[in-house]
């Protein structure tokens, strides 16, 4: 098996040289285990948090051990009761070409007619995050005006389309002209979040003079400050991510206008997908699966080729060079 490790916890934006490609002979399968040849690896912004050496809602990555992450592959050997050779599964043994795991740690693919890698994106963890954040955390109503940051990304692009199809007025932020054009082609008013808070505020007052009822937060920084300014009384903010902060070596000042949470009586709720989606997985697949399968929900992928590209694919998330879900395809 070939896999990536890190030997120290980086400060700031990681260098490519942080990631070491190692090789290891896998031991014989134990009772209950499966060996999986990975075909697709997922890289995700939250992985930066696991490189910080600090336990948050999840343990940090162990140093000099295979990194972990979402992956999809085919069972090539099995000593598990129900999993057999040829089965396609998703699991957390990513950042490597061959994974060996207990069969209880892998999941078979739901029966939905989509390309398999969709189960790492729009019908996987990021998709569940979008759906749970909007419906369960923000309790979205069709009369809401919704603002979504990083709206063309894996999570954001599903959140934006779900909100639009519910009948909401949707504003999405994205970092490039191409991404904003994609949003506008899907009925979403687009703004740029790579600007000062003042500039974002004025962009928001133009596209949403009626104010914002729900803010689906993915980026933090000036975007959050501008969103607070635009929120209506009793608005809800679902805090999904704050990617602009993940590479900060030292914490920067929070939004200057945070007291608006009080004066506007806002509800601001951070959430982690698996805690909210637990017990709702079938509802998610039933609601979103058909929309993806018949093309009513569109999703995009940026695909890097080959295990060696995994660190570059991961780092590209922080440059915004991905359109939709960032994936690595293995041969
Ligand atoms: P995306 O596909 O959205 O990729 C990340 C995007 O973030 C980039 O394409 C870029 O878009 C934007 N970005 C990168 N750096 C910055 C920056 N400094 N300031 C502003 N924007 C930046 O990733 P995901 O859809 O996988 O994740 C989106 C968010 O959701 C992340 O914050 C992630 O941590 C969070 N998340 C949270 C989960 C939870 O359970 N709470 C689960 C899954 C994801 P652009 O070019 O538009 O700037």
Q: What's the story with the biggest beta sheet?
A: 7 strands, mixed
Low-confidence stretches: none
Could you tell me the CATH topology label of the largest domain.
Rossmann fold
What is the total tally of β strands? Answer: 15
Number of helical runs?
Answer: 10
Oligomer state equals single chain
Q: What sequence of helices (H) and strands (E) makes up the elements?
A: EEEHEEEEHEHEHEHEHEHEHHEHE
Distance between the termini: 14 Å
Indicate how many domains the architecture comprises.
2
Radius of gyration: 20 Å
* CATH architectural category of the largest domain: 3-Layer(aba) Sandwich
Estimate the helix proportion, in percent: 25-40%
Spell out the CATH superfamily of the largest domain. Answer: NAD(P)-binding Rossmann-like Domain
Q: What structural class do you assign from the helix and strand content?
A: alpha/beta
Q: Which CATH first-tier class of the largest domain would you pick? A: Alpha Beta
Average per-residue pLDDT, rounded, comes to 98
Task: Give the overall shape, derived from the CA principal axes.
Answer: globular
Strand content: 15-25%
In this entry the ligands are: NADPH dihydro-nicotinamide-adenine-dinucleotide phosphate
């Amino acid at each position: 098996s070939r896999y990536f490790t890190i030997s120290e916890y980086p400060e700031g934006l990681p260098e490519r040289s942080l990631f070491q490609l190692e090789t290891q002979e896998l031991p014989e399968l134990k009772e209950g285990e499966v060996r999986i040849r990975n075909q697709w690896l997922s890289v995700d912004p939250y992985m930066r948090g696991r490189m910080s050496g600090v336990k948050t809602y999840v343990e940090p990555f162990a140093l000099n051990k295979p990194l972990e992450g979402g992956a999809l592959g085919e069972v090539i050997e099995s000593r598990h009761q129900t999993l057999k050779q040829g089965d396609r599964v998703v699991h957390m043994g990513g950042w490597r070409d061959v994974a060996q795991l207990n069969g209880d740690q892998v999941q078979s693919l739901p029966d939905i007619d989509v390309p398999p890698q969709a189960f790492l994106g729009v019908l996987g963890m990021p998709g569940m995050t979008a759906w749970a954040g909007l419906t369960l955390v923000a309790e979205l109503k069709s009369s809401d005006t919704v603002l979504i940051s990083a709206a063309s990304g894996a999570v954001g692009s599903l959140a934006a389309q779900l909100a639009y199809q519910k009948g909401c007025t949707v504003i999405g932020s994205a970092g490039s002209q191409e991404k904003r054009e994609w949003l506008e082609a899907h009925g979403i008013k687009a703004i740029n979040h790579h600007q000062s808070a003042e500039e974002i505020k004025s962009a928001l007052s133009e596209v949403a003079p009626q104010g914002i009822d729900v803010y689906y937060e993915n980026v933090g920084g000036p975007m959050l400050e501008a969103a607070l300014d635009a929120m209506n009384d009793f608005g809800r903010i679902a805090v999904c991510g704050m990617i602009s902060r993940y590479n900060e070596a030292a914490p920067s000042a929070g939004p200057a206008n945070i007291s608006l949470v009080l004066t506007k009586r806002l509800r601001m709720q951070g959430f982690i997908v698996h805690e909210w989606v637990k017990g709702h997985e079938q509802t998610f697949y039933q609601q979103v699966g058909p929309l993806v399968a018949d093309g009513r929900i569109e999703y995009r992928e940026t695909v890097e080729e080959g295990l060696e590209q995994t660190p570059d694919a991961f780092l590209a998330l922080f440059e915004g060079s991905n359109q939709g879900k960032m994936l690595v395809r293995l041969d």
